[in-house]
Amino acid sequence: MNMDEAFSEAVVKILEHDTQYARSAYYFVRAGLDHTVKKIATGDRKRAAEKGEVSHHVSGQELLEGLRELALDQYGPMAYTLLSRWGLHNSSDFGAIVFNLVEAQVLGKTEKDSANDFRGVYDFKDAFLTPFKSKLRLRVKQEASTEKAATSSPPVL
Length: 157
Description:
Blueprint: H1 3-17, H2 23-41, H3 44-50, H4 60-75, H5 79-85, H6 91-103, H7 124-128, H8 130-151
Helix pairs in contact: 2-4, 4-5
């Protein structure tokens, strides 16, 4: 059985007992983990690996940041709504999925890892809506200016 099949089978088994999160939430967390590992591999850990200090561990906070980046990149302003539909309402929900996958032996953990690592790391509205508020305000302001200019009377000669 390859890794994709093992992951899919584990998610099916988890969902038989815990339906709090949608199947898509599990696949998103997996994609977020892949995204985070790639990001870390190009950053400080790459330099550490060059020194022989190799570590494949991703902390809860690193994963949460990777999940936030991936959601914003893939889903833009709809990220908050989509994550909510999948049952994800706070950073602890990501941790619950991670530890469901750990329990299903699809992901590993160190002795230092805990579900508490995911608690209160960021507010979902701040993380997934705020990046778009200023852009929306600017767009509305620009549209209002354009509309005002279009409806203004032309100068009289």
